[in-house]
Design goal:
about 25% strand, three-stranded mixed β-sheet, alpha+beta, about 90 residues, globular
Length: about 90
């Protein structure tokens, strides 16, 4: 699953990362609510890309397995520290 978003509203304030973590937790809960089992989630990854509207440059903000989404603090730390070039 890929999501494309603009960087216009994105900054590195801690609260924005927490909001993103809460969104991911809600997404996981929604996926479970439609009937997928926890063990099925290990096969689903979410990639969030941001686009610099001035240059059209695309950057992968993070990739996270939906099964790896747990509590807000650990998800926030993971996505905030994610480095696409080191992870690949």
């Amino acid at each position: 699953m890929e999501l494309d978003v603009s960087t216009n509203q994105w900054d590195e304030k801690d609260e924005h990362w927490r909001e993103e973590a809460r969104y991911l937790i809600e997404l996981k809960e929604s996926v479970l609510a439609i009937g997928l089992e926890e063990h099925d989630l290990q096969y689903i990854e979410l990639k969030k890309k941001v686009v610099n509207s001035a240059t059209d440059e695309i950057t992968v903000l993070y990739i996270i397995g939906i099964g790896d989404i747990s509590d807000e603090e650990s998800v926030k730390n993971y996505i905030q520290q994610y480095d696409y070039y080191s992870a690949g």
